[in-house]
Amino acid sequence: MRPYFHLIISSLLLTGCAVGIDPPAPTHLVYMEGGTFEMGTRDVDPCERFSLENCGGLTCDIIMPANERAESERIVQTLPVSGFCLEEHEVTMDQYRHCVARGDCPRPVVSNAGNDLPNDDGSFIARYWNDPKRYGEHPVVGVSWSGAQDYCRFRGGRLPTEVEWEFAARSGGTEHGQEEFIWSEPGLANNIEIGCGDYSNQIALGPCSIGIRPVKASPADVTAQGIHDMAANVAEWTSDLWSPLAYCAEVQPDGVDLNDLFTIDERGRVYHVPSTSLLRIEDEMCLEINDDRTDYIGKRRDDFYQCARLGQEERGQIGERVRECFETFDDESCLTEGVQTVCGRRADAEGRCAPTPWCAPRTEAPSAALPSSIGDNASPQFVVRGAHFQSTQACEARPTARRPERLGDPLIGFRCRLPEEHTRCRQAKLSP
């Protein structure tokens, strides 16, 4: 046999098996029928962000820290979603290693899983990427956003948009009559932060699980359609560029440009500029803008602060009282339809904020990788969804939570979305 024939055979074998790595089976796809759903949350204090200060005598002040991530969740809108397929679990180590071996994907930018915590709870794994025999069926982490997109293109798809991710995480949206995410499990959310009890190993979240888990290993973390691990195990990349105003309409009421309602500083903090375009009426019994146009004023604002005075014996009810204050303050007779009040930061109030009309929401879903119209920079941030195995608060696993990230992270994984017309997606639609 001629020598070069041996070389050809060897080359073919290496190409087919990707340098000795057998191609892992593709992930089962779940078809999500399109529809509409209400995206976002009306909960003003999902993580008990507000605190009590200036306590004296029988009263305390509620301090409301401005938080762009949390405020961006309260841009509530009803959005259409086209049909698509989503992988039933996160991309595994074995699957991603095969793509790297073929030369179609870059190596992860970090090789460990989780952060090395001071309390040494056992969740940190230093040689995670380098131990495929032990962690091959665990989700890959530390992959950059572009690396995740490379893998999804390799599989014939892309990363899901935020809208698609939340639609799937909420079991197709509330309009479809499904329970919202994993919290249909009685008592689970209330037990996560106190050691989990009977829910140990039911979800890979903080005290419920010691470290990262294999995909599909958490029976409480599954949607009505059978999509696993969207609440936790690892957080997940989406295709969208980060903007706290991504779900505000670009043109606000009265033709006002979105950029005219907000400014942003070098640290990425968003400051609200008062505008009559967000008010149904401007009146002292509702809201009006002060003479120097730096703040909203009026009786409704005074009512809020009167509501936000607590007796010290009521400190344990702070979350409930703050929600009551916002419900009193949010009045459709005062605010333009669709606008919600958030805790907005003023340019002259470092570290403080006040109840503020935010923006009118968009009426159509943004496209994948929506460019941020405010705060563009040379090092873009992309949206991450879901909690992870080192999260310690149940609220971090809510389906509306969103945060920005630039680089690969040892707590972030991903899954892929395939278009409805893809052959495998058509098969999933016909035989779920």
Walk me through what this model shows.
It is a single chain. The protein has 432 residues and is an alpha+beta fold. It has 2 domains: 29-36 and 79-244 and 377-430, Alpha-Beta Complex (paralog of FGE (formylglycine-generating enzyme)); 41-74 and 248-357, no CATH class. It contains 10 helices and 20 strands. It has helices spanning 3-17, 68-73, 93-102, 132-135, 145-154, 162-169, 188-191, 299-307, 318-329, 423-430; strands spanning 29-32, 35-39, 51-56, 59-63, 77-81, 84-87, 235-241, 251-252, 256-257, 262-264, 270-272, 288-289, 296-297, 309-311, 341-345, 353-357, 382-385, 402-405, 412-413, 417-419. Strand 12 (288-289) and strand 13 form a beta hairpin. The chain starts with a helix and ends with a helix.
